[in-house]
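[job 4471] stage=fold_predict status=RUNNING
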Amino acid sequence: MPWKASSVMEERLRFVARLLDGEAMTAVCRDFGVSRKTGYKIFDRYKEHGLAALTDRSRRPVRYANQLPLPVESLIVRLKGEKPHWGARKIRELLVRRLDGDVRVPAKSTIHAVLDRHGLVKRGGRPPPCLWDQLRLNRQRRRRGLRNIQLPPVPLHRLPLRRNRQQVRHCGFLMATRRSL
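[job 4471] inference complete, writing structure tokens
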């Protein structure tokens, strides 16, 4: 015997029909595998709104408590359009002066998120690789008979130091001496 498929709406309708026939709430809830609290909630919705109340309701929140008001967001975008070289920190200071306590001014990170969402912020690129990593790659390339990678000219004071003839894994740029080269 094949399983009989039923929707949630049909199950709720059967639940309400059994209650309307006069069965006890506890027995009906036990048969359907729901708590009495849920049973009363379904039945009260049916009594208040009819059949339309038995459909699934949206779980989407009615409002977002921390959502930035639309006028403030559009003001941020407009200010960035007027001053394209300004960042979130300067725009926030300008908002503090302009709004003057009328509306709570968003944080610098929120302003940056708004600018990023509207595509008004350039993303930072990857930091340049450590010079010692490039030198190590060149040594490996020379061993394989390949050409060196051209290194950009680096001022002497920007060269990372070696300590005890071992490479420093992080690129802490300190004063270089002739021995470290």
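[job 4471] summary: The helical segments are 8-20, 25-32, 36-49, 70-82, 88-99, 108-117, 131-143.
[job 4471] exit 0
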